[in-house]
């Protein structure tokens, strides 16, 4: 150990632990009865570190007994850790049954930066490090002499001096002796990290460019103690704080190192998730989760450090995962930018048309907004609108990508876009802490987030979409949508006060049941396509000639009916894959259906925006395409499984083993046929003159790539482009693409197919005299549990307007069963807008089953909506 650093180390030990001599007279030693400091100073290790630096510069007295540390170092003769010297130490301890030497050795290693950083070095770095160490000055050493620089290790590359395999095998051996060294490791790391945190404030660049610096984080992450409750609230927090306060360039290197070298990233994630869980528990204990405390989980000290560290691991997981080729990514980005430009042009045309009217009204609006600048928008549980002043910053959905809360400097530095990755090294679910998400009050977190200027927000869960459960993401999207709807209504209210031109505060669609698609097209084209801002209003559906106020049920029924019609074979816009039972675009659909495809895209967006589940099923690739992705060979596995298997066998074919060529075995050319909605074969040349180009062993990969591109992209581009455009008309300004993965958008649009009616029963509520113990209610659940899946889906459609399970399970539906009079021959009815079933008190289980079956079999247009 360099002399100057050794002295600092001794002062730390003297202030924190003392020399152990009860007769000590040194006022700078904790063992002394004359200790000059208030011992509460020891609770703030930053103060301790500052005092250590001052004492060393003033040559304050050092206790002789502290020299025992040096004696132990010389006696043990260990300055860094290797697998061999650890085995020797353990053997020595086992022979003598004295573990003191192992404890002292671990203290020497883990309390001293230089010793720890020079442990487990690769062979080709060891000699260089040794020479640097020997040539370092002693007592007069400057801080520069404590750092090792090597031209092979820079912040711009991914090289490290650590021998990962040796380090991991040594740590595995060390874990076998946790009981003997746990407290020693805790004390030593506490000392090391406090000193490091203090020194980083003035020497960050020197540390980050030290050839061995990143070894420290990798070694500590391999220790099992980070998940130990003894470590979680001090050592672990300090460790995560130091790591996440490095420069962006250094953090980026650490992420790249993890993705390149680690094979157990999931173990690191477990450490951090345990940390987050324990801090969540502490928050619950402190504020009392059942109280009316306004303190948010994001205010818990230490939570920020945990989430920032988890984000580093998430990025490493992405980099170690699967991403499409750079060529495909570039094409996708350019294509999406082109689509966005078209949207901007459309909106600009609309803005130019309205500019004269807007100028006349702007002064009146400004005056009204000025007078309302102190008004607060109040949110409640039943109507979660943003409690924010008029002059707050923009909501998340209105922020440009460059200022998006879902992007950050590290992500930009790494050129990472999460949705460009098909999968990570590990499943994305390991980054979601279910316990913390259950306690997380996402509505309050959002309101707190939107109320503050970006510069004043120290921490918010909104910044970490990878951590949020799908349920919380949906809640976040919903409150964002409701906030936008509220602001739209408020803006219109102000406009209507000062203008003779009255604006509608909702997006109203008036349709006839027998002209549903035609009427919907007219409404969406007139109000939506030409005036995209209309789509941000709350949807309100009216069926012509029918009474009823749309509280959600009419909208559900509208979506149900229109999807049934527009996806039917009669329109031939889509076709059903017989193997997967999924819908797909008909490649030979009529050329004049752009309006209809745009309508369907808008319906997808409106369903998401208004939290309505659609009764449709598309393959996963559709939802990747809605995020701006292109379909590739891998996507055929779920969209065209037969074609996928055939192409996979083509790629796997071995001419030598089979004794024949690819040409003879498959007889394929670069001209292919695909089937349309009516079973006709459509011929396509994958290359010019494709019918004359045979598929060979040499060009088969090109064939697979081109054929996959044809099936999923080129053959349906004419149909998909207007569909995608309609979808973006509704969702372009939302946070959808930043918050959700493709598989989550699938659930968001179409819900889940899993029907767990036990969940529905547990969450059900009763009204009008019924309780869970009422005989009719017991009969009801007995009947319902005996229904087939098809009958259960009919029941869901009858009572809720949809036969799909929302994300989070059927418990989230909160079915309400109300007593609708005594025994009768009347059928049950339902209020789908409230998920309410009106159930007469039938006299027998047989009668209940008969009446309920009749009702659900005739559900369309039945009952009150």
**Helix coverage percent of residues?**
40-55%
How would you name the CATH homologous superfamily of the domain at 568-592 and 602-751? Hect, E3 ligase catalytic domain
CATH top-level class of the domain at 568-592 and 602-751: Alpha Beta
What would the principal axes of the Cα set say about the shape?
A: globular
Spatial arrangement of strands, main beta sheet: 9-10-12-11
% residues in beta strands: 5-15%
CATH level-3 fold name of the domain at 568-592 and 602-751 = Hect, E3 ligase catalytic domain
Stretches where pLDDT is under 50 for at least 5 consecutive residues are: 65-75, 133-145, 356-393, 398-402, 861-865
Question: Mind explaining what this structure looks like?
Answer:
This protein is mainly alpha-helical. Among the domains are: 3-58, no CATH class; 568-592 and 602-751, 2-Layer Sandwich (Hect, E3 ligase catalytic domain), CATH 3.30.2160.10; 752-864, Hect, E3 ligase catalytic domain (Hect, E3 ligase catalytic fold, 2-Layer Sandwich). 53% of the residues lie in helices and 5% in strands. A 4-stranded mixed beta sheet has the order 9-10-12-11, covered by helices on one side. Strands 1-2 form a two-stranded antiparallel ribbon. Strand 3 (507-511), helix 21 and strand 4 (539-543) form a beta-alpha-beta unit. Keywords: Transferase, Ubl conjugation pathway. Residues 342-353 have a biased composition (Basic and acidic residues).
């Amino acid at each position: 150990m360099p002399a100057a650093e050794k002295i600092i180390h001794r002062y730390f030990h003297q202030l924190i632990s003392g020399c152990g001599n009860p007769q000590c007279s040194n006022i700078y030693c904790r063992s002394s009865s004359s200790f000059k400091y208030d011992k509460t100073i020891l609770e703030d290790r930053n103060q301790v570190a500052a005092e250590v630096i001052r004492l060393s510069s003033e040559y304050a007295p050092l206790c002789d007994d502290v020299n025992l540390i040096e004696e132990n170092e010389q006696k043990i003769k260990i300055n860094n850790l290797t697998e061999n010297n650890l085995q020797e130490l353990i053997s020595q301890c086992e022979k003598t049954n004295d573990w003191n030497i192992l404890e002292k050795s671990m203290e020497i290693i883990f309390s001293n930066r230089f010793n720890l950083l020079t442990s487990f070095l690769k062979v080709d770095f060891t000699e260089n490090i040794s020479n640097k160490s020997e040539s370092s000055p002693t007592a007069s050493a400057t801080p520069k002499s404590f750092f090792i620089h090597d031209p092979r290790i820079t912040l711009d590359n991914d090289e490290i001096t650590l021998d990962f395999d040796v380090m991991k095998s040594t740590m595995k051996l060390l874990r076998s002796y946790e009981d003997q060294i746990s407290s020693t490791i805790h004390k030593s790391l506490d000392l090391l990290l406090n000193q490091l945190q203090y020194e980083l404030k003035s020497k960050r660049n020197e540390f980050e460019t030290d050839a061995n610096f990143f070894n420290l984080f990798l070694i500590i992450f391999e220790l099992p103690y980070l998940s130990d409750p003894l470590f979680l609230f001090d050592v672990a927090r300090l460790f995560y704080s130091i790591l996440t306060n490095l420069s962006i360039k250094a953090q980026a290197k650490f992420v790249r190192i993890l993705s390149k070298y680690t094979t157990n990233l999931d173990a690191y994630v477990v450490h951090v998730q345990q940390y987050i869980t324990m801090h969540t528990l502490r928050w619950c204990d402190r504020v009392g989760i059942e109280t009316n405390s306004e303190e948010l989980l994001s205010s818990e000290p230490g939570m920020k450090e945990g989430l920032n560290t988890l984000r580093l691991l998430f990025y490493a997981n992405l980099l170690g995962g699967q991403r499409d080729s750079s060529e495909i990514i570039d094409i996708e980005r350019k294509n999406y930018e082109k689509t966005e430009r078209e949207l901007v042009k459309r909106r600009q045309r609309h803005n130019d048309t309205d500019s004269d009217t807007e100028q006349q009204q702007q002064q009146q609006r400004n005056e009204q907004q000025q007078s309302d600048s102190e008004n607060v928008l109040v949110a409640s549980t039943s109507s979660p609108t943003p409690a924010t002043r008029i002059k707050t910053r923009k909501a998340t959905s209105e922020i440009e990508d460059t200022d998006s809360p879902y992007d950050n400097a590290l992500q930009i530095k790494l050129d990472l876009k999460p949705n460009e990755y098909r999968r990570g090294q590990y499943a994305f679910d390991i980054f979601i802490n279910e316990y913390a998400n259950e306690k997380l009050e996402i509505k309050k977190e959002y309101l707190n987030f939107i109320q503050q200027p970006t510069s004043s927000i120290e921490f918010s869960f909104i910044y970490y979409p990878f951590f949020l459960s799908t349920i919380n993401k949906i809640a976040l999207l919903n409150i964002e949508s409701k906030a936008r709807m509220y602001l739209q209504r408020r803006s219109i209210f102000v406009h209507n006060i000062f203008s003779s031109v009255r604006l509608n505060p909702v997006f109203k669609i008036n349709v006839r049941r027998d002209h549903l698609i035609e009427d919907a097209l007219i409404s969406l084209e007139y109000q939506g396509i030409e005036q995209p801002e209309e789509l941000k209003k709350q949807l309100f559906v009216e069926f012509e000639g029918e009474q009823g106020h749309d509280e959600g049920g009419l909208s559900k029924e509208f979506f149900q009916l229109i999807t049934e019609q527009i996806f039917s074979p009669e329109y031939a816009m889509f076709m059903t894959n017989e193997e997967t039972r999924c819908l797909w675009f008909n490649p030979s659909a009529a050329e004049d259906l752009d309006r209809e495809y745009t309508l369907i895209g808008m319906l997808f967006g409106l369903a998401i925006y208004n939290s309505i589940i659609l009764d449709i099923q598309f393959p996963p690739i559709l939802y990747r395409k809605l995020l701006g992705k292109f379909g590739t060979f891998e996507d055929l596995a779920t969209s065209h499984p037969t074609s996928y298997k055939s192409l996979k066998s083509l790629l796997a074919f071995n001419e030598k083993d089979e004794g024949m060529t690819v040409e003879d075995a498959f007889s394929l050319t670069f001209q292919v046929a695909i089937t349309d909605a009516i079973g006709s074969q459509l011929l396509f040349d994958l290359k010019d003159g494709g019918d004359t180009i045979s598929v060979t062993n040499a060009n088969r990969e090109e064939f697979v790539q081109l054929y996959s591109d044809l099936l999923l992209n080129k053959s349906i581009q004419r149909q998909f482009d207007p569909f995608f455009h309609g979808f973006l008309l509704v969702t372009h300004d939302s946070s959808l693409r930043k918050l959700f993965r493709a598989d989550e958008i699938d659930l968001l649009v179409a819900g889940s197919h899993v029907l767990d009616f036990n969940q529905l029963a547990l969450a059900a509520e009763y009204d009008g005299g019924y309780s869970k113990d009422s005989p009719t209610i017991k009969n009801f659940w007995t009947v319902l549990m005996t229904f087939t899946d098809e009958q259960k889906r009919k029941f869901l459609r009858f009572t809720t307007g949809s036969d799909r399970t929302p994300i989070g399970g059927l418990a989230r539906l909160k079915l309400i069963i109300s007593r609708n009079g005594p025994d009768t021959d009347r059928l049950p009815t339902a209020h789908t807008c409230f998920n309410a079933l009106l159930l007469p008190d039938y006299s027998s289980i047989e009668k209940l089953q008969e009446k309920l079956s009749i009702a659900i079999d005739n559900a369309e247009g039945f009952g009150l909506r």
